[in-house]
Write a structure and sequence with these properties.
five-stranded antiparallel beta sheet, globular, binds zinc ion, 5 strands, HIT family, subunit A, binds guanosine-5'-monophosphate, 20% helix
Length: 111
């Protein structure tokens, strides 16, 4: 999508520190990290929110990628997976993304 921030990152028009590269997904480090490790895993194609993620093969690639990242040494003490959907979640970027947070003790409940 022309004006979507994360589509621009996929096209290389906005630089990002790449954390993971898959066939239809990519992971990059969040510009404003909420934990020592804060990766955003996204589909390369523009899908606005989780509610529009209908493609089962893509779902499979997303979750196998998250599992692969979650198994890394830098996440060895655990991680949190967050998907914000809709107004009350505080979602700001309407290109589906999975937050993978790690590297510190995370509060629960999140508030
Ligand atoms: P949301 O609140 O929509 O779930 O999360 C959007 C995330 O995208 C935020 O954590 C924010 O810091 C991150 N973000 C926004 N703009 C950029 C950018 O240009 N580059 C990177 N790497 N992350 C971004
Ligand atoms: Zn997009």
């Amino acid at each position: 999508m022309e004006n979507c921030l994360f589509c621009k990152i996929v096209r290389g028009e906005i630089p990002a520190k790449i954390a993971f590269e898959g066939e239809r997904v990519m992971g990059f480090y969040d510009i404003n990290p909420q934990a020592p490790v804060h990766i955003l895993l996204i589909p390369k194609e523009h899908i606005p929110t989780l509610l529009e993620l209908k493609d089962k093969e893509l779902r499979d690639e997303i979750f196998s990628s998250i599992i692969e990242i979650g198994d890394r040494e830098e996440l060895k003490n655990g991680f949190r997976l967050v998907v914000n959907v809709g107004r009350d979640s505080g979602c700001e970027v309407f290109h589906l993304h999975f937050h993978i947070l790690s590297g510190r003790r995370l509060n629960w409940p999140p508030g």
